[in-house]
Every structure is written in C-alpha cells, then in structure tokens.
Records
---
Amino acid sequence: MSSVPSPTTRSYDALIIGGGHNGLVCANYLARAGLKVAVLERRSIVGGAAVTEEIAPGFKASIFSYLMSLLHPRIIRDFELKKHGLTVLPCSDMVSPIDDDSYIVFSDDMAKTQASFAKFSKHDAAIYPEFDAYLQEATKIVRQILWETPIDPARRDWRTFKQGAEFLWKYRKIGRKMYRIVDMMTMSAYDFLREWFEDERVMAVLAYYASIGTFAGPKTPGSAYVIMHHVMGEHEGAGGWGFIKGGMGAITQSLASYGRSVGVDIVTNADIKEIRVAGGRATEVVTATGDVYRAKAIASNASARHLYLDLVGEQHLPAEVVREIKGYRTMGTAFKMNVACERPPQYKILDRVKADGVLGSFPYPTYMHIAPDIDYLERAYDAAKHGWYSSEPFLTPVVPTIVDDTLAPPGKHVVNFFGGHAPYTLKGGDWASEKENFKKTVFDTIERFAPGFRNDVIEAQLLVAPDIERIVNLPQGHIFHGELSTDQLFFQRPVSGYADYRTPIQGLYICGSSMHPGGGVSGIPGHNAAREILRDLKKSMR
C-alpha cells in the first residue's frame, strides 16, 4: 500500500505562480540578480500558452501560440536562448487569397508589396511607402514605451510627480507624432486605414491584425491600435514573423533551461489553492496538495482576475479594485485548430502563386490570411457580437513543417489554423453540442479556398475559448489576458492605480499579460515586473 507524501514547507526569496513565458522571464531576471527563486506551474509541463505537444502519433504542434513575432531580442540575448536550444526559422511572405485566381502578398520587401497592391489599386500601391513610414514612426515610439512602468496620474505625491516629469522629458522629442498614437488608440482600423487606402481588399490585409485575439471588428473604435500591437516585433522575418524549430514550446523550454542553469527551481503539477495574506502582506502560497511556499516576493503570471478573485479573495482587496477587476473585459472569441495531415491545403491560387515567383525559395506559402475584404472581417465579428460563432470565420493557416522537419513524420505535415470569431459563451446554445458543428464550419471555410483538404486530414484538434481557459487558465479563453482597448492599456491595465506590476497586497506582484504592454509572446511584462520587484527588495534592505 503506497503512502501519500506529507505536505512540505519551503522558503524562497521569490515565487512565481505560473510557468508561462512571462513567468519564466521574471524568474530568470530575479535569479540572475542573485535571488533564490521557484516557479510553480499548475500543469505537468512549463510553457503556458507557448507549448509544443503531440496531437497524433508522430505529430507535434504549437498548441496555442503558433508564430514568433514579439519575443524581444533583448530577452533572447540576456538569457542566451540560442545556446539553450532556441532556433528561429523563416516563414514565407504572407499571402491572402481574394478569390479563386487572385491574391495579395504582404512582404517586408516594399516593392513586392506595392506590386501586389497595384493589382487592385494603383493609388494604394503608390501611397503604401508613406503609410508604412508613418506607421513605423509611431511603432518606434510605442516600442520604447513597452519597457516603461506605467505611472499613476491620479497620485499627487512627489515621487509620482518626479516620475511623470522624467517620462515627459524622456519622450519630449515625440512632438506631434503623439497624435498618431492617439488616433490609433481611438479610431477603428477601418477609419484609420480609409484615410490612406481606397480598396477594401487592400485595407483588409492590414485590418486583419485588428481582429486577431480581440473581441472586435475592423470597424470597432480603438481597433487601429491592435494593428500596431501585432507589427511591433523587432527580429527579421516576414513582417517580423517566424517559426520556432520544435514549435513554440522551444521558447519556453529554452527559458526554463536558462533558469535552471542559474538556480531556478521549477515545480510542475503545483496547482495553487490560495495566497495567504497577513497584515496586508502576501506571506505564502498553498498548493492543492497542501504544500506551502514562503517568500518575500510573490509574482503571479496567472491572469489578474484569477489572482485577485480566486487566489487572494475580495476580503483582502479595496472595493474599487474588486469592482474594476470584475469589469475587466476578457471575453475570448479566438479559436485554434491544429491539424495533422498528409499534405498542406492545396489552395486554388497555389499554382499561380508558384508561377508568379513571389515566394522566392519557399515551395509553399507557409503563412496565410483568409479574409478577402473588410466586410468579411466585420461579418465574422458581427456573429460573435450577437452571441454566436461566425459562419465564415477569418483564418490564419500556417504550415511550419515546410521548414521544420521535427514536427511530423517524413512527408507528412502539421497545419495550425488560428481564427475568429467564436465567443466564449453562446447565446441559446452551448459548446458541448455545437463544437462539432463549428469544426465543420471551419473546414467549410478552408474548403472554399482549398477544395479537398478534408481528405488529407489525419487528426484535427479544435480548441475554442472554454477549452483554452480549461487547459491554460486564460480568463474566458482570452489570449491577451484581456482586451487591448484604450481603457485597458498602460496606466489602466488591469485596474487603475495598480498598473505598475504591484497589487494592493504588499509583496504581491503581477508579471503576466494582464499587465502593460499586454499579450503576445514578448517577455516584456515579465522583464518589467522583475525590475520593480528588485527595486522594492533593494529598498526594503536599506
């Protein structure tokens, strides 16, 4: 008869709740500074939404996040991730089919993009370089702000005044360019793009980014900013995008490898039951099995809503924080389908794309967007807005196995389909009975552009928002931990007064995508949170 291990008590300088990429980044910076650190991960593997797992015998897929774009070069350098197994592979230029025999190519190569736009509008092709320069100038400013700790403009103490003055002085040269950022944060993607372009098929190429992972359409106010959020990646590739050899799990595995090399303890199957608070300070973390972990600093990579309402509890929080976090919008409408198949989708435009030579050395378009025009994107949102899944969802099909032979048996392939919209809750229905119907809808959409793909499918794993929430605990399946809207960004993310990675509980921090600058596999929230934790610990030792 086997005995049940007795609960243990362990002490550290810092604890990280959640082994997603931001949690690992935060842990690594703290350990590099000399702290004794532990990461507590609920699942049996680390990685959060950046994981690679088997979907069929011999087939592995990036289950949730599927392309590298935002992981910052600074993070890669600081943790020597290439030495710890990280290899970035190229993907093709993005191809967007318009109908049975026409398409648009969106490339880092300005001339190639212009030539593609020109097939639909000479005006749009001519204006694109000016638009790109305009967008890149705004993006350059925002890239700097990503690394800032948001100030609380409501405070009237000398320290906040000093921080505000330093912030304004640092960015004093922005001048009138700030209006560009204000426009993008308040305008819809459609209105913003309409000031530049005339053809809605061209506009859809850029407006597509505004719908990725958000509960919004291209005509939703504030959706223009999300375009910029998706193009802020700074590494080389098609629009900053690339594949990771071995799937996105290789990012978090390399982060974990570095962490272990500097002494980070990574504990899996550690489901957190509560964070104990005494005298207004977080003192220890208790797991579902009764293990107790104590630390001077506790940082949560879990969503802010889960942290505040489930792990801490309303009784320890100011009423205003409880009210705001309950109102924090996290309705997920994104879905993911991972497919093991005999061959990738054979698009109607494929022969023409190959004949035109726009793919360069790539034998196949590894990165595509399916959304022929603005109305297509807006209709997909309209369905979700009224409580149902889209009958024609927008789709991002990517085929990593064109460049990565580690994910499938020889001659076989894995295709990741990311898309929207399919809301977390269905009005007048439920996912238990509708999921298979929606899977058929997704395949119908693919078949419209690539007839016969169903016949090549070996296995298909469909994940809708409740699945994403259940597996990786993202709130309501929202891939960014919350909407990227003006009222949920910078000094209001996730709640006003506590956007500086701290919480109302002393010694308790948030290091995940609920904080500035938001979601995506960037590592920046983890970096910024570690900086503030180290600042507070240094101050406490004076």
---
Amino acid sequence: MAIVSLRGISVSFGGPPVLEGISLGIDAGERVCLVGRNGEGKSSLLKVIDGDLLPDGGQILKGSGIRTARLSQGVPAKLDGTVFEVVSSGLGEVVELLSRHRRITAGLESGGGEALLGQLERVHHDLDAGGGWRAHQRVETVLSRLRLDADAAFSDLSGGLMRRVLLARALVSDPDLLLLDEPTNHLDFDAITWLEEFLASSRQALLFVTHDRMLIRRLSTRILDLDRGRLTSWPGDYDTYLRRKGEALHAEASESARADRRQAQEEVWIRQGIKARRTRNEGRVRALEKMRRERAERRERIGTARMELQDSEASGKLVVEARDLSFRYGPEKVIDGCSITIRRGDKVGLIGPNASGKTTLLRLLLGDLQPLQGTVRRGANLRIAYFDQHRAQIDDAISVGENVTGGGDFLTVNGRRRHVVGYLQDFLFSPDRVRSPARVLSGGERNRLLLARLFSRHANVLVLDEPTNDLDMETLDLLEELLFEFTGTVLLVSHDRAFLNNVVTSTLAFEGGGTVREYVGGYDDWLRQRPPAEPGAGRKKPGKKPRRRNRDDRPRTLSFKEKRELEGLPEEIEALEREQGELYTAMADPAFYQDAGKEVVRTTGRLAELERLIAERLSRWEELETIREGST
C-alpha cells in the first residue's frame, strides 16, 4: 500500500516543465533510486514530496501520520548550535530533553552542585516516560559511525562535514519515508559501508538520488527514471534498468528518425507546383500539420557529453619515486616511511578515511609540500593537470568561458582551434551558460567546468582529487572510458568504489598511523588482499547484531573493462575466423604448394595459432556472457 502518492504533478521554473504530469506511488519498506541527468529535476521532486516546493499542478497524497525526512544537497542558512543539537533536532519533542540532559551532565563533570543532580533525576524520568533513551542511543550511534564531534559548533564545520551532520539528522529522525539527495558525498568507505547496512536493515521506505552505482546495486528495489520532465518506473535491479533503458532510447531514436523522414517527404509533396496543390488530399494536409505540431512539441534528449583528452608528449618511464617519506601536522603522524614507485601509464588510486593524508601525499609527490624525512624523485618531461576537490581553481567572478580560456573566445584542442562556446557545449553547457558568471553554477556544473579546464591542457599526468562528486551516470561512464584509454599516468583520489574498480591498476591504501600500503587492482581487489583486522580491533558492545550481507552471495557484475572487452569480442572473433578462412582458401589452391616451403610452414603455423586464439576468445566470450546473464 502506497504511503505517498503523487498524481499529475507539474513544476516549471519559466522554461520547459521540469516535472510534467508526474504520477508516483511509494510503498512502505520500498527502497527506490531516482536517476536522471544533472538538471533534470530530481532534487525538485524530492522537495515536492517533502513539502518544501509547491507544484504548479497535481496532488500529493500522504497516509495519516506519515512523516518524511530529507537530506538536501545544500546546507540550510542560519542553522546553529552544536553538532549534537543539530542532529537531535530531527527527533521532535525529545530534543529539548536530550539537550538539557547533555548540559546537566557537562555541568556535573565540571564540578556542579547537588542542585544539578535533582535536575538530572527529573530529566531521566521524563526521558524514560517518553522513550527518549532509544532516541538518544540512535543519536550516539549515528554520530559515532559518521565520525562527528558532538560538541563541535556546526557553524565552524566545512561544507562536507555540515552535510554529514544533516545526513545524521535525517537518519536519527526515524521517518516513514527517508529522502536522500547524494548521501555518500563526503563520506569515506567505512561510513558508506555502514550507511548501506543501516539503510538495508531499516524498515522505513527510502527514495534516494546518488551517482554511487555500487550503492544503487546494493540497495534499490526499483528504479525511477526522470527524463525530460517525464517519470518512468523500472522494477528490478540497476543493471536490468540500464539494459532496458538503452533499448527504449534506441527505439525512441529510431521512431523519431522515421517520423522525421515521413515529415520531410510530406513537406516535399506539399511544396510541389500548382498542379499538385489542386489535387492534394486535405486529409494528407491535416496529417502533415499534425506531424509539424508533434515535431515542435518533441523534447529532444540533451546530447551526451563529448570529452576528449589533449594529446601530449610522453613523460619519461619513471614518473615519481618516493623513498621513506614522512610527514606530520603537529604531533599527528600523517605519513610514516612511505616508499612507492609510479611509472608511465600507471593508474593509481588513493583510498582511506577522510583526513587520513591522501591529498597530503599527492602534494608531496608533486612537490607542493616538502617531506620531513625521505626523498622524492620526479621523472623527466612531466606535464601535470590537477583536478582540485575543493574546486578552488574556478574563479567565481568571471564567466564560465573565461575560466577555460583565461580570456578570449578561442582555444586549441588537439591541434584544432575551437570557439569556447562549441568546446563547452561538449561538456553540456548551453551558450547562455558559457557567458554566465561561474558563481551561479550547480555542483555538477562546477565539476564539469573543472573537467573542461583540465582537458583543455596538454598533460601526460592527471591528478584527480574526488572528480566524481555530483556527476551524472553518463558523464561518469565517459570519464571512465577516457581514463581507461589515456596512455599517460593517473593519480586518483575517490570514494566511488565502482569508479576505482573500473579505472585504477593499483591502489595506495591509508591504513592508520601513517601507514600506506600498495595493492594490485582496485577497490574490490583491496578488500580481498588487505590484512585481517587485529583480534578485538573495532569490537562493538554487545547488542543487536546488524544484518550483514555476504559479498560472495551477490551475483557478480561485469566491470567497465569487461563490458568493453565483451563488446569487442564478436568483432575480434570474426576477424580471426575471416583470416582463418582466407588461409584455408589459399591452401586449397594446388599452386600454393609450388612456392617455397617456408611459406607452407609459416601458413600452417599461423593456422594452428588462429585455432588456439579463436578457442580462447570463444571461451572468454562465453565466460563474460555467463556473468552478464547471471547479473540481470
């Protein structure tokens, strides 16, 4: 039974409708993922459901007493108090009791008198009566797992920590429907894993927006797709949705092309000479007028981003070699005795908890910081392009276009002179947006602008510090493909587990106490190879054991590299079989054996090799197809 229903919801902000006749029902206990490109209206739909945005038309129906809680992408203004107070503000009437309990306890710890003991007793009684202790336990648990300092002033936190506090507030409120907009942004792996388990074991309904494909695969029971104002529902898992959505878009493109051809033919017919006009069929004229109206009303899908990396002269074989690096911030040991060698073509991921030292290590390797101990040797002919996670390279005071060109209207990309408007259209910026000041850009647009700046530079070393935040799925897929094909070196800091799996060839893991270890492969490979935890490490207090899911019980899905391999195998097998057929045809000609014997030996050797290669490729194709079918 639906706890929230939307009927015919429409929202417009002056242009084409963001939401056009949306109808939706969410049942109790459902975990629904809302997907769509940046700017399609996903956040607006969450606001409508939460009641923060009034629609232009339609109805919102909620069951009696149904409560919602929402994590937005932005941070509300004028939110003050300690972290504990902000988080517990999601608990309704219990908030004041919990705040009073915390103040009285702090007073007693600092030497308060007996009067405080009496106050504490009364607060204890009220908390017992109102079920406040369970709420208090939820707050303490969430604060601990999200690594939040309960006594810190909210206003003193960074933007990323503020969003983490707001996530905690939404989680502890225990609503009937939880609305989460990019919940994994600014979380490290431990926090993301805990959040997955928390949400998977929760009884409440969930509607969430995320670019974290692993989170979608592990949580969603249904996919909602928002595309050009229209909402469609796709039961089943994410990979099934991707396949069926691709088929639907292909069918739509084919139908649009057929309609355009029919209209073009009719336009030619109606523009024929006077003789044709005298005999034209009025029904056919009306049909053409209908075609024209439908074509005018058709909302074309925004094109896919078309990004390309600048070619650059190759670096030396050695990119950077570090020996026994150590670095501290005050007494805190960030890096202790780190030794690594990075060579041309390596794609290295850096993973670890927030503030563990990943950006510090990058700065040491690039020469922006000097180690307290150890040495760093950099190779020859390094041309480095840097993607800053804080987006400090963007100047908000100038236009989007000027941020790329530095002034002027043209830039040169891979030897071609291009106008900045055309170049930025490849990154899905409209001409008006190119001329707008950068300060008006959304988070996703700022990331795309930073990528546009990055890719306009000649580079053979790419340093990417959290490049995936706020990017839509299609842009993520394209960025993965570019980095996969990039012949230079990549240093990548990311909490996007699927992105790491699909891009990096080795991983540097920050494992506490300044220890940095190197592992072959991406995130999943690190999970398999990392040393087991020390006995008793991280042991929790007795209590209800959280439900865990065995990774081995889930169907394996193809990685990005494996998908590319599977797509290319039929063509590769066909080419091998074609060569095999040509050699057999040549050997069937009696004249073939009249030539020198060396050619006969070479050809028969090549045939044996082809037979082996074809058998290997067919076996690999069957293996990948089995994995693909098993995950759908």
---
Amino acid sequence: MCGIAGMFDLSGQRHAPAGVVHAMSQALFHRGPDEDGYLERPGLHLANRRLSIVGLADGQQPIANEDRSVWTVFNGEFFDYKEKRAALEAKGHVFRTHTDTELIPHLWEDHGPEFLQHVKGQYAICVWDSRTNEVLLARDRAGICPLFYAVVKHDGADWLLFASEMKALFASGLVERKADFQGLNHVFTFMAMPGPTTVFQGIKCLIPGRYLHFKLGQTTPEQATAQKIYWQISYPDRGHEDYGADEKRVVDGFEAVLFQAVQRRVWADVPVVSYLSGGVDSSLVVAMANKSAGRPLPTFTISIGDARLNEKSEALYVAKHLGCDPVVVDCGHDELRTGYPELIAAAEFPVIDTSCLGLLDLARSVHQHGYKVALTGEGADEWLAGYSWFKIRKLVGWMDKVPGLPLGWAVRQFFQFVTGAPRFPYSAYRNTMRQLGGSNGWFDVYGLVSTNKLRFFTGAAREAIVGRSALDDIEISPDLYRWHPFHRQMYFGGRVMLPGHLLASKGDRVAMHSSVETRYAFLDEDVIAYMAKLHPRWKLRGVMNDKFVERKVAERWLPKDVAWRRKKMFRAPMDTWAAVRRDAAQNPRASWIDQVLSEESIRRAGYFDPVAVAAARQRLAKPGRGLARLSTEMGLTGVLATQLWHHLYLGGQLCELPDRVSGTGKAA
C-alpha cells in the first residue's frame, strides 16, 4: 500500500502553490518510505509515497498509459492483477512495468469511470485524463483504504485537495483545523467515524464503494464533491435468500471462495505474515494461507496483561498445530497509558476502543521483524453475525413485536435506571427505530453506549450533538426495508463499524503508521457476495452458533475445538484511566492522563462537564464489574480520547505532550 495526495484547481488553469503538495507527501512518509513521485501540470499536482510490495524495481508512481495521456496515483492492491493484465495485453495494451498500478490507466482507456466494476482489491485511486481533463477519486468496496478531501479558496480559486490521511491536508497549510461537533457525535454514538462526516470541519471522507468524478474547468465545488455510488452492500429481498437445503453445497461454496481470497492475498513480491488471535477467523486464514504458500507463515499475536482478555494461549495452540513460528507482542496497562497519544495521532480521531493500541503495537512488531504485509481474519464478524448483539437480539427481539406495546423500550429504560445512565426521550428512540427499519441488535448495544453523550457533553457541543441524530449523515440504503430484519442489523455493522472503526482505528491507520499493509480475505468481493446471499440461518444457527457456515468450513482445516471456539471481544483494559492516580509517581510518562482530564483542561477544551468527568473517575477508582461500569469506562475513554485528540490536532495546550502532530504522522 502507499499514500497518495494532491490538489486540483477546479478551473483547471493554475499551477499549485510551490511546496504544498511536497509537504503533503512528506506528511505521508510512514505510508510509503521506499520512494516518492510527483506529477505537476496546469490545474493539478499529484503525489505518491510508495510502500513497494508488487513490482519492486519499476513501480514508481505516478504511472501513465502508453501515450502518457492518462495518469494515476494509487494506494492499495489489485488481487486479480495477473488475470487483468493478461486480458489487457491480449487486447493490445502495452505494459512498461510489473506493478498492478499500471492496470488503472489501461482500464480507464477501455471503460472510463466504469473501470471500477472491473477491478478487485483494496484501493484508493486518483485518475486524471489529460485529453478530457476528467478527474476520478475512488475508494474500494469495503473501505479498507481511506481517502479524504476538502475544498478551499486560495488566491481567488477553488482547490480540491485529497489525501490518504487528514494530516496531509493540514500539512498543505491551506486547510483549517477546527472541530466538527457532528463528527464527535458519530464517535460517541457509533464508537466509529464511518463518513462522510469527519471530526474536522470542511473535511470529508469517501464512503466505501463511492467515487468523485468531475471535469476541471467545468465544475463547481458542489458538483466536484458529490459522491457517486458504484457499489454498496445489498441483500436479497426477504424470502429470496439462499436457504441452502443442501449443507454440503453451501459449505463447499463458501470454502471455495474463501480459499481463493486467501490465495490471492498471499501473493506478493515480498514475504507475507499473518496476525493470529487463536479465534476461528484468523486461525482459518492462517491454515489456508499455509497451504497456498506451501509453507507455514510467521504469525504475530497480542498478549493482553489482563488474564480475562488474553488470547495468547489459544493463539500459541493454533500456531503449534499449524507449524507456524509465532511472535507474541505484550500490551498491558503501562503500554496503554504511554502509547495512547501515538494511537490518537495515527488514527486522527478520538478512539474509544483501547484494543486498537494492541494492533498498533502488533504492526510495529511486524515492521521491526522486517515484513511489510500481514494477513488478518478481520471482517467475518460483520457479515457472519460474530458479535454478541446478534445473539441478544434473537433472545429479546420478541419484545418489540407486540403492537402498541414497546417492551423493548421499557427494558432499555429499566436498564438505564438501574445503571444510573442518562435517558433519551421516547421520541428519539422511535425516530431511531424508523431509520433502522425496526428493532436492531447493533443499536441495542451502541444505543446504550451513546447515553454518554448526555452524561458528559456540555455547552455548545451538547446542544449540537444531542440535537441531531448521527444516523442522519450515513446515507442509509433505501433497499433496507425490503431485507430480512437480521440482514438490516448486519447492514449497519458493515456500513458503520467496519469502515469507521475496524478498518480505520484498528486497520489501515495503525498498520500504515508502521509501514505495514494488512490484507483481509473475508472482505474479498466474492466472499462478501457469497455471505450476503445466504439465509440468516447460515450466519447464526439457534442462539449461540454464530458464523455457522464458516465454522463448518473450519472443521475441515482446524481442530474442532478451534473451529467452534467462542468469540472473545478483544479489548484492552479501560479502567487504567482511573488507576493512574495511584501510580503516577512510578509512571511519570502517564501524567498526561491526569492533565487532560483535569478541571482546567476540560474547561479549556470546552466539550465536557468537568464535574461529570471527575465523578466518573471516582466511580472507576472503586473495584467492580458489570454493564454499568463498562458503559462508564467507555464514556470516560471517549472523553480522554477526545481531549487528547484536541490537544494533538487543535493545539489545545491541555497537557505537557507536544500539542501538534508532525509531518511524519507521529506526535512531534
């Protein structure tokens, strides 16, 4: 993978200001330390930072077609490169390199913007056609590779700037840093930033499966930034799913598409390794990758200090069974306290899930061992019902089916009363149910987490955040109401959590921070399509048998106890924000925690009520467990992450840490 950046004068006439795009490129150095490349013409300036994985010797970007009329910069991988290249050469196209990037200008020649229907992989793309002055910016179907953009006025002209990370937009010196309250609303509603809204005013991100397409000299800023759809997740109409009376046919079919996806992702011109948690997803990927590669792959595993959360023994058991050479990376309280600033600097938005720091450390270890590419089992839970809320919804869903009797609402109210959580009015609940198309297990969980918006926010931030639904921004599919209710809740996990959390703060940003590309077999286009067409019974059989079709495949590749191992919600301990008071003298590097959560810093940033924050810290200083404590932990983690993000990106002077993010993407 790489980092891409650039800017376009929408009038198509002016040269980019001197040094701006080079500064943007330098801010992405960590994404592509191997080499850089630039293209400058009237009206545009493009840049690429390259992490060389395919076509090591001749893959420098930007890359053009035969007559150098179509140019591209590209972040990602096309996993059907060999087949596509052979087909294009058979049609007379001439290739000069051995990199998959070169597919883009040739496919553009044949198909124009429709070429997006002809590629498979993970990617963020910019194409410029000098003959027509057309520009296309696109993001892959699942949202693995990010792409951000902003329109600014400079020297009397409208400029569209784009980049793989927002810090590159800031490095231009043309994009203002200012908090977007609605972006913070997303963080505290979803624990994610699904897009197009971000936490910075004026910056948008491309939604997965979307693209921008415009002609320089013939477009307004509104036209240039209108996101167009070339793909989005879809399910059969209710009653038209593949019920799968023949179990062997269904399991054989899933095994075939998944193995092909793994096989494609093992291919590279550099060695490939794999993450391994010991759960069924990563274990199955490693088993299939070993067969594809003809040898055991090295594996990398996180070891959490809290015994309740640690999966080290399970991962080592699988590694031994598969003959892999394992590397174990420790992540405990001390690592969390001292490493969280680096995580927020890498992610660019407040991260509530503390396990993301473990993924940051894991990618760093991969890099330190000399590797650039790691396979991962992420992505199965979203499309095969691996999360607990699917089971919860199946258990309690009957309560919302009684006409005129909102029992589900009553249960939520009772839970909030018992735990002391703030409560939204019934009108907000009813509106949310309408937007979701009915009761939804995903909302059952995150709806309770979102009560922290009422608990902590104050002033203008509270008015803006509480007064608007975060669901208003995510452009829900109009087909939602035709699907099976089970698929409706699955859709929101795939639309929100997958690109906004798992592939952002746990995927691209933390991996590329250490110059590591992560590859996702479960997010292969063919795998997603196969999973989508299946009846829900192949995803959740009964109440407890989640990822049913995957586990039936895993029985063929792994010990049965691994194939049917229950999922652990991998996370790092969050009560560390309270415990730091007791050992600050022994760990002075964590003093920033007390500083950003102090009454003075809380008031200076202006988002939160300092009395509510202090009360939450006092509650967490006492030992205990339960849902009430977990909700408070997640809320306080959100407060701390937001304070830290504000300090690092908005110059908040909230603690002794440097208060800006440097051009390398790390805290200065």
